[in-house]
Amino acid sequence: MARRQRPSRTLLGFFVGLAITYGLVALAGTWTPTLGLDLQGGTRITLIAEGEPSEDNLVEASQIIDQRVNGSGVSEAEVTTQGNQFVVVEIPGETQRDLVETVKRQAQLRFRVVACTSFDTRCGAPTAPADPTEEPTEQVPGAGVTVVPSEEATGSETPANRAPLGFSEKKNGKKNGTPTEEPSAEVTEEPTEEPSAEPSEPAQPAGGDYGDPLVWMDNPDPASIQAFQDYECPPQGEVALVEDDPDKPLVTCDDEGVKYLLSVAMIEGTELSSADAGIPQQQVDWIVSLDFDGSGTDTFTTISRALVGTEKQFAIVLDGQVLSAPTMDALITNGQAQISGNFTEQTATSLATSLKFGALPIAFEPDPQVETVGPSLAGNQLSAGLLAGGVGLLLVMIYCLFYYRGLGLVVLASLVVAGGATYAMVLLLSETANFTLSLPGIAGLIVAVGITADSFVVFFERIRDEMRDGKSMPVAVEAGWARARNTCVAADTVSLLAAVVLYIFAAGVVKGFAFALGLSTLIDLVVFFWFTHPMVSWLAKYPFFNRGHRLSGLSAETLGVESITLRTPVGGRV
Amino acid sequence: MGRFSRLGNELYTGKKSIDFIGRRWLWYAMSAVIVVICVFGLGSKGLDYGIEFTGGAEYKVTLPSSQVNQDTADEVRAAVADSGVDDASSPVVTTSGQEQILIQTPPLSGDESQVIGDAILETTGASADDLSQTELGASWGQEIAKRSLIGLAVFLVLVVLFIWAYFREWKMSVAAIVALAHDVLITIGVYALSGFEVTPATVTGLLTILGFSLYDTVVVFDKVRENTRNLREMKMGYAEAANLAVNQTLVRSINTSIVALLPVGAILYVGAFQLGSGSLKDLALALFVGMAAGLYSSVFIATPLLAHMKSGETAVQQAERRAKARQRAMADRYHAVPAFPSGTPAGDERPAPSAADEPAEPSPARAEAAGKGRVAPSAHGPVAPSRASGRNQPSRKPRSKRGQK
Q1: Is A446 on the interface with B (CB under 8 A)?
Q2: Half-sphere exposure (CA, 13 Å, Cβ side) for A30?
Q3: Of the residues A175, A248, A524, B7, which has the maximum number of CB atoms within 10 A of its CB?
Q4: Interface ipTM
Q5: What's the CATH architecture for B11-49+140-319?
Q6: What distance in Å separates the CA atoms of residue B53 and residue B146, rounded to the nearest whole number?
Q7: Quick one: which of B379, B123, B2, B122 has its CA closest to A551?
Q8: Is the Cα torsion angle A243, A246, A248, A253 positive or negative in sign?
């Protein structure tokens, strides 16, 4: 008797579990799953990392790209890493071509000379830094950045907020050390250059030839100055968004809100052959050493000659943002320079990586995958996917009803319950684990209908086999269950194994498919164990089934036996 | 339906039996022919890789179905060819599904892509929302292929281990893997021969087939194992038992495959006819072909192969011999019973059995067991374990021990 009680109790437990799941969904408050790009419309850009980047680097790269994309005014863009090689940028909604360029663009590292900054008056009245509360008001921008022999811990005394930087010649022992404390105090640079703002200035035609940047820096054209004066630095912590055109002067800021007017690019990041962070011998401070290639060395020598001994700075610009603007204290002709300052290991390494790879700590292959799905196609795909799902489910149900008759109702109920559970899980997962339902995902769910229904087929065939052996239905259900259970668990394990392996090793949309397949296989097991089996056991109590009604699917005729055993004799076997 | 069920019953009891195992050479040969054709097709025609593998740009423009016809496609082709982009001078333009025109070109730069996109929109009069585009470098597809191969290798190893652990039988692993390779080869061959495009979705489908094919095989093997669990006490040999297992699961296999193929067929239909080309179609097509091959292979390849491999084992051979002896004996059960023609007077003198009826020579005398005075026949095979099912059986101590504590 106690045995009879169990099925209904299990069923009850199952429904309570389902209700709790839906309760959680209700708490989360969303009743529609997050749709993937292919169902919603949008742009997906997949960048493929070259070589074998470490996971940290990949994550860092994705964060930088995230900043870049979201900085450009798109807020819902999502940047994720996949596997150990992909960075996927997903931008839902309108298709946006320009964003593709933003993401695709390799980080641009350039060396420019500084014409003026918000701290000097060369370009008219000095403007206050963006954040007046900020201490560096009295600093020379790029404070403490001087050309010092490498041995010196330059700029360590400067009260700068960020690591003051200094340039020094690499492996030169001679100390021509102008220690860095040529401080930051006040703007040494007189507006000796006539405040070039005046229009009389024989300005170069706008957008045209700016001449030698080293000449230009002392005498910027009025259009540039105007641009400089008009420009407002973004609030601190945000990235300045400027177009970094190597052939034009650049107005931009560093991350402390100091504004710069910079010349056209003089050295491209590609001319830098290496950059490393390290502690030189007999020193304690971190430095970043640079190594230019042939043409870079030449240009750098020229810059070095022009700038050495002056307060003039040059700037290292990354993606339009000034990384640092050091002055030149020593003449560097061998293309090997060191940036020193208040570096910690972390900041030095980060600057070195930035210099080496552009903004990204890893290099990406030049041709990323770009997919744009127009909302029309997305709508079509969604409706097609749903239609396919509906039709597939219906066909399976009809077949099962036709073949298993009464038992087919159990299949029907199980599929409905499994569908309900799957939907709840999809909702929960899209809330908690950022699962998005994509077209392959829908396909996975539909394919899984087959797997789910198959468990029932195995189970029912077993029951029928047991009944053919002469057992009564209640006994046959239990005996068939014991056997079908093992088969199903084994088969589902294989299926799950396939899904997991697919999920781990596949990339892109395939993941969605694998996930959906794995999820529904698991749900199949849950439903099979805690719904279908108790349900059938429970139904076995009713004469409709255990007496083999013509429509029960278990009649003598369908089983192909003479008669149905109504009570299994003691001992089980006949 | 009733007839199908009755067939199921007859297959179950063994009343009706399809000889899967016995005719294995026929199935092997059939599969070999199919596989050879597939490999040949693969070698001669090769696979038609989609742009995901070759690199390129693909545009899909969604239009009202009245506009999707060859004329529009031709117009678009002309417009794209005249757009001034050199790489796109000979685009591939086709209609796809009911509401789509598909344009494929070699890889383009962002600006060029913009030009083409505008040209397409202008020609068709569609809005920007209707245009979808994919630009792919060849490296993407290669990456997918590489990862899929790694995944495949890992999966195979795991499955071999799993089946071996579950069935405790490495031969089952081997048979399952052979069946798997068979399915995958056939699927690839169908792709090569039919010229269907191979895309990452196809690869996904292929990997899913692995799971499905094994699923089927596991179910059949489970029954085989059940039927052959107690080989020593069985009335039939391994091959026969395995054959019965296949027959018993045949109805299930057919049902399963129908149930699994129905949704896939739905996806295939919707994918191919409504959406035209796309991941849905590719996926469903690979699944459809693979599942069909999977059904075939689990029944016709995996089990016969398993029986084939097992036939070398001593226990199996013994069972086989026993089964054969029993069969011979059962052919004429009463053949050893002496026949008395009616009317024979009852009496002591029986007619001497004729030489043909009985083995004439008595079995050669066995060596006397030394000193014991009785002759134990040598065993034909290992002795079956007790049927006592763990219950205590009455035992009798040897006489020398009786009465003593």
Answers
A1: yes
A2: 13
A3: A524
A4: 0.71
A5: Up-down Bundle (1.20)
A6: 11
A7: B2
A8: positive
